[in-house]
Amino acid sequence: MHRTISFTIEGEPVPKGRHRPAGNTIKRALEFLSDRTHLNLLQIITLRKILSAKQKFRTPTRTRGWEYAAGLQAKSAMRGQEPLQGPLILIAVFYLPRPKRIPKERKGLPACKPDDDNLLKSLKDALNRICWKDDAQIVLGMQTKLYETDHIRPKTDVCIMETDFSEVLCFSQAFMNNLMN
User: What average pLDDT does range 140-147 have in this prediction?
Assistant: First the structure.
């Protein structure tokens, strides 16, 4: 029997932010190098590459906060169980705040930022080592972005299912047949 975990992460979904350099090591080093006119351009480029490789990066605070909250919800849903094993199906529905420029009466999908893949990256990183050992276990993923409504506040609904080859094959074939007809 396959295990299924479902839960909701309350609050506005946050996309994975770009990693930013921590500190100003590169800036200080380049300032130092700019005073050294005897270094040629190739030496400066080489030093810059070396410094960039050693530079530490950090995830933006907003992303880390959302990932932490998502992890807490996932731990609660797992109820102390071990992470799911083997191939998994991940379904996520992201309810985003409706921009003020779009009337509530107007139905529509948010075909705008944030990108659904960045929302999904943030979710996958938050659930690593809680719901699964590694997000590489996800063999089928479906995500959608919807606007909040009067009855649905910004949140993320998540469903994770253990699966096997025949289920994924059956779903994939049915989906493709639907597209072709």
Answer: 90
